[in-house]
Design goal:
The protein is built from 12 helices and 13 strands. By secondary structure, it is of the alpha+beta class. Strands 7, 8, 9, 10 and 11 form a 5-stranded antiparallel sheet that branches. It has a 4-stranded antiparallel sheet with strand order 1-2-4-3, sandwiched between helices.
Length: 436
């Protein structure tokens, strides 16, 4: 076998492969003989089918298989000899005009790029910190109480106020004409919680049971109902039922209903704190990790292999189809999903993956067994039976690979923060959690 390697453009390469026809035919004959020993055909006993009949029936397919195998093996050997890191699958085409007794093929493919990471020493990066305060604990406690609130009918002369649960009949018209979704009977919602548009809640606030009111409502231009977006409707609303909310007291009964082991208020507050601290830790890791990865990519130079980007595009498109199917969309498998909408994200993922891989290789940032074990134990600590969770992770190679990837990302994050000019910033719990 003779091999030549040609550089086309950027990451694209071409290898020319020459294979002796005799070696291909010998392998075809060998496989046909083997096949003849087991093949079943009408009119012949098993193992007694004449070779010419076997060759006539299966010759083409066997020849095709052998050719694929031989070319694949030749390509692998050539790529290894040339020390090429092949990205994706090669496109192989047969060439005309090969010397007698030979078959010649062109294999066009891409190689992984050389990744150059600039000096991070002069780069600036911000590391955020946050803590769980009493206000966060109290706010979470109120949410838990609201989730367990009960409702009781209010007196007929009571006026609707924020916190009440109301049941209303309503009908809206635009230019005197009803519209889809503009009418309902016995519609129920909590007043003051933003479940309805602001003008609707303002109209209901202060109403009494049996009272009716008309009012204009301007739908926002970005309203999800496109047929009414940006238009003004006239609504007639009637209050049918009014219920006051009653929040459970913060006592041992509430603690027990929330599964607190010792059934005390102090135990409940401590449980809330631990859960919030766990969430804060996760959010901080995610936010700081993103900052490190963004900085790393910004200081890296590389060409992107088109084949790897295409594979990522295919994966994302299939994911979108699976999501549509899960939502019950008809013919989701045939839905037109232009892959270009995913291209920026796909390119960013590929770029980040290649840069991280190079940094890990160059600086020995692979995950150690001790790091993986510590990470799993940390995740398992929040469960009732940590040992079972640890066994669950160690029993599946895929789950272990996911943990290893996370640990490597953490190693990369620490490396970047250790190299760059880091400033620390403390933000509020609300800012970290994306709350107002």
């Amino acid at each position: 076998m003779s091999v030549t390697v040609e550089t086309l453009e950027k990451l694209e390469r071409k290898i020319t492969l020459s294979l002796p026809v005799q070696s291909i035919q010998s392998e075809v004959d060998s496989r046909l003989k083997k096949l003849a020993r087991t093949v079943k055909m009408d009119g012949f006993r098993p193992g007694k089918v004449p070779m010419n009949v076997v060759a006539q029936r299966y010759g083409y397919s066997v020849h095709y298989e052998v050719l694929n195998d031989k070319v694949g093996e030749a390509f692998s050997r050539a790529a290894n000899e040339a020390k090429l890191r092949v990205a994706g699958q090669p496109r192989i085409t047969e060439k005309d005009g090969a010397p007698e007794g030979e078959m010649t093929f062109d294999a066009v493919f891409e190689v992984y790029p050389e990744v150059k990471i600039g000096d991070l020493g002069g780069a600036e990066i911000e590391k955020v910190n946050a803590a769980v305060d009493e206000a966060a604990i109290n706010k979470t406690l109120e949410i838990l109480r609201k989730q367990r609130r009960t409702f009781a009918l209010r007196s007929l002369d009571s006026a609707a106020q924020d916190g009440d649960r109301v049941s209303v009949d309503f009908e809206g018209k635009i230019d005197g004409e009803p519209f889809e979704g503009g009418k309902a009977e016995g519609h129920q919602f909590q007043l003051g919680e933003g479940q309805m548009l602001k003008e609707f809640e303002e109209a209901v606030r202060g109403m009494k049971v049996g009272e009716s009111k008309t009012f204009p409502l301007a739908f926002p231009a970005d309203y999800h109902g496109q047929e009414v977006a940006g238009k003004t409707a006239d609504f007639l609303v009637t209050l049918k039922k009014l219920e006051a909310a009653h929040l459970p007291e913060v006592n041992e009964a509430l603690a027990k209903s929330l599964g607190i082991a010792d059934g005390t208020v102090q135990g409940l507050l401590e449980d809330i704190r631990k859960n919030l601290e766990r969430e804060v830790k996760s959010r901080l890791i995610g936010r700081n990790k993103k900052a490190a990865m963004d900085l790393l990519v910004a200081h890296a130079e590389l060409d992107l292999p088109k084949s790897v980007v295409q594979a990522e595009l295919d994966r994302m498109t299939e994911g979108a189809r699976a999501d549509l199917k899960q939502r019950g969309i008809k013919d989701a498998d045939k839905a037109p999903i232009p892959e270009e909408i995913f291209r920026p994200q796909a390119e960013q993922r590929v770029r980040l993956g290649l840069v991280v891989a190079e940094l890990v290789r160059a600086n020995s940032l692979n995950a150690s067994p001790e790091q993986i074990k510590a990470h799993i134990e940390d995740m398992a600590a929040s469960y009732e039976k940590p040992a079972e969770v640890v066994r669950w992770y160690y029993s599946d190679n895929r789950r272990m690979a996911e943990v290893e990837a996370v640990v490597i990302e953490n190693n990369v994050t620490e490396f970047v923060f250790g190299k760059a000019k880091m400033t620390e910033k403390t933000i509020s719990f609300e800012d970290l959690m994306g709350q107002s």
